[in-house]
TrEMBL record, chain B:
Lineage, highest ranks first: Bacteria, Pseudomonadati, Pseudomonadota, Alphaproteobacteria, Acetobacterales
Keywords in alphabetical order: Cell membrane, Membrane, Peptide transport, Protein transport, Transmembrane, Transmembrane helix, Transport
UniProt xrefs under InterPro entries: BP-dependent_transpt_permease (IPR050366), MetI-like (IPR000515), MetI-like_sf (IPR035906)
Name this polypeptide is given: ABC transporter permease
Transmembrane segments: 21-44, 89-119, 131-150, 250-272
ABC transmembrane type-1 domain segment(s): 87-276
Organism: Endosaccharibacter trunci
Family from the record: Belongs to the binding-protein-dependent transport system permease family.
Record localization: Cell membrane
Topology within the bilayer: Multi-pass membrane protein
Keyword set includes Transmembrane helix: yes
Major localization listed first in the record, in broad terms: membrane
Residues making up the signal peptide according to the UniProt record: none
Amino acid sequence: MSRRVFDTRRFSRAASLSARMALLAAALAGACPAVAAGQADRTLVIAEEAGPATLDPCFIRSDAALLDNIFDTLVGRDDTGRLVASVALDWEQTTPLVWTFHLRPGLRFQNGEPLDAAAVAFSLNRILDPALGSPNLSYIRTVAEVSAPGPLTVRIRTSAPDPLLPARMSRYPAYIVPPAYLRRVGNALFGRQPVGSGPYAVTDYAPDDHVDMIANNAYWRATPRIRRVSWRVVPQPTARIGALLTGEADLIDSVPVDAIGLIRRQRDLAIDGLPGSGLTLYLGLRTRQPPLNDVRVRRALSLAIDRSSIVRYILKGYATPTGTQVGPYDFGYQDVPAPAYDPAEARRLLAQAGYPHGFSIRMQVPRRYVKSAEIGQFIAQEFAAIGVAATLQIPDWSVYTQDVPAGRQAPIYMLAWGSTQTLDADAALYPILHSGEPYSQVDLPQLDTLLDAARTTMDTEIRRALYARIQTMVTEQVPLLTLYREDQVFAATRKLIFQPRPDGRIDVFDMAWAP
Amino acid sequence: MSARTGAPFRGRPSTRRRLRADIALGPVLLLGLALCFAVGPALWPKSPYATTLLAIYHEPGTAFGQWHPFGTDQLGRDMLARLLLGGRISVAIVLLSGVLAASVGSLLGTISGYFGGLVDAAIMRLADIQLAIPLILSILLVIAILGPGMQNLVLVLGLSGWATYARAARARVLELRELDFLQAARAIGASPGRILRVHLLPNLVPTQVVLMSLDLPRLVVAEASIGFLGMGIQPPEPTLGNLLADGQTAILYAPWMIVFPGLAVCMLVIGFNMTGDWIARRFGA
């Protein structure tokens, strides 16, 4: 199979070579600029696992990576993860509750509309407007009021001191949209024909199929080096790899780990992985009901899982076993080693907790993450080895994503969590560990106190110390079973210059065709 | 098929030879598969559940001292053991739901045909509605509500297929109703229940059996599709559909994972189809 695909590719390369020879001949005959245009005009095709249901930042539920290319934010982030100037040249915290941002002068949207403080205030207030019901409101919930005291000055008041406000202004959903255009076309049409101030403008969009973009030549940073981009939705991993092998796609995301060897054997393709930059997988536990309300039972389950074998054999090493939900690129990260694998100790703990013969329990593992269904089956077997009979269910993703925040999930359930919006421990921990949060099944008052304190403390060192204490407490109390952190794995043609980033951005502006 | 059934066997030597020539390829194939699935899991010593992480995606052959004639899957489990058990589970589902569909359909069709009038109209319109709804869609809807599991799967596959049986039964009953023995039964005062039980239903058996043998391949494919979509029996339990779904994701680097279950589904469908034809020819139904 792979052999044949490879040969086809060679054939097409030969064909394109002869086409290029023809171009060269034309160039020698006196049409020199045509050659340069031919290379720059090549469309970059990105095949993604999932596509956006709308291009309106107010209503997106996923796929911020695509929108990053259309819209700008007040604050930027460089490829090392540092916050840098973007639409805002600089910013300061005027009082504990008020931040002032000074905008770059002379910016315009792709339709010529000026990008000023009023546009920024309009964009943020739109998401905060409860009448619109934006699913992304929680990301900037700390913002109480946004105003524009001057054409280039934006003032943001928060409801409590928020150390993460600049980080919140660096990513989804805090994109800046053109107020006049949006008022004219309305929300529904804006979701299909958006206008931003970013490096690329949308030319064609078919939901769940493709988004075509063209470079914004007036972009304030510079003219993008790649002229045309086409984002295609290819949900099947096999089909995505097929598209890359045949040259239909230049860059694909979520490469299945089993196919990495196959891609590595192709001389013109490269795997671009970034260790520890993906989501952190965990088994959520409904800790309010027996038997999982007993910390000894939770610790026993944790000791029963052989994380290093899962990573080594099932994930082929493209993940890192870990003991904390916080990622290595996040502020507040502590290098907590993965819990030991000790089934004998697990059985002893279970007996101590009053379950010498184990118990039966239900477990839900969606087929959403890399090899998750396989890993679910493997963990169910390891639970069986300590006497816990776990009945596995593979839920439908669309049903599962509604069941989990509503608290209708099984006692043990797999989920992955990340912190790409702010690259901060708060995003990695608070939503899944603080009591009362929709994704949390945990009730530990002491942990709540620490999480709340860390969320509102401005002092960097105190925050770091708080997160260290939180992670130690989580290790002791085992409110959930942290498993491993995925690597983001991309595969691309060697003709493309591309570097994966810790925040999962796919910025075409930073890419170029190899000379 | 229709050309052959059109010529009933009269016992002439030439016809008899032709009968012997196409002797039971379908039934033989089907019996062979049934035997494999029935006793295979007990005879083949390897467990369909035991994972060997070192032997993930091992091609057919020997891995770490263990012989895997059909290779191993994404958790290093023996594919032959999984195929044998998966085939057994799938065939069980198909047969149970086939019998359920035939029973419900025959009963409703008989009632419809015998009583006629409003009852007939009501049941036949229900059948029209049933036939108008796309099969997989209705199955997925019901499974999403009831949850996956063997019981629900049999129920849903069985109850979604009754309409064809009901129509065939109704047609046959309309024909039987006018025959003398039935008129006689009615004349001596037999109750409708007795007429249904003693005179009508037994006379339906031959047609319904042929119909069922032709309907089973549809159920094999339906079960495989549901498993393929991940809405059927939950892993680690294998079924033909689950095995196909697992194999599909690995088609580029472990093609044996889809080839063998694919062949099994093909052989099963061909076997049922040929057996249906064979029964139709053999018993002239």
